[in-house]
UniProtKB/TrEMBL annotation:
It comes from Flavobacterium aquicola. Keywords: Phosphoprotein. Residues 3-116 form the Response regulatory domain. InterPro entries: CheY-like_superfamily, LytR-like, LytTR_DNA-bd_dom, Sig_transdc_resp-reg_receiver. The modification 4-aspartylphosphate is found at residue 55. PANTHER family: STAGE 0 SPORULATION PROTEIN A HOMOLOG, TRANSCRIPTIONAL REGULATOR-RELATED. Pfam families: LytTR, Response_reg. This is LytTR family two component transcriptional regulator.
Amino acid sequence: MIKAIIIDDEQNNIINLQRLLEKYCPEVIVTGSSTNPNEGIELIKSSQPDLVFLDIQMPEKDGFQVLQELNLYDFEVIFVTAFSQYGIQAIKFSAIDYLLKPIDIEELKKAVAKTSERLKHKNQNLQLQNLLHHLKESNNSSDHRIAISSLKETRFVYVKNIVRCESENSYTLFYTDEGETIISTVPLYEYDEMLSVYGFIRCHQSHLVNKKHVKSLLKEDNYTLLLYDQIRIPVSRNKKDLVKKALI
């Protein structure tokens, strides 16, 4: 059984989520709830849940501020929000689950199933710690780490150490400046959105490149990016102008 609490400023949302869990995720037992973020903080401390369903947007404190007031993160979090852009990039960056209101039943079941799997190896929640660090150091991008979900683990890699990403069917291959290759179960297009603000260029349908590692743009039969490690990355014809502009 998964012991859970719900923190949401709308009582109707709490009731609705609890009913969905009872019907579709019977392994989750809701042991408490709160419409007040301050009371929610005390509830987390006193009840020591396995899982917290946490509304992002609340008066007084948002969901991120609730977490920032805690010192121990030995529980899992599934964020709940009515807005698709509010904090979602930071959440994705740390590979944390979230649900959009109104809650989709299949998405709820998937999120709970992933949480259940992580709880089998329960320890300090490094993904939450990475999220809070990301939010705290939002102006210091050189210190940001991205959570990369692989088949066996979640790896935390400094963005500045990523040379390039390559699509491999529904997987993404990460290549680091230390010569390591990490296989992610997340498709490339999701990383494109996350990493674009860090100077990564989608130069090809199958390639995403950190422009800090680009040595030159070769004007051969087709345009090619030459990296400092001598790897050559193709540039799609329709991406040529975008790549030129990004490298200036």
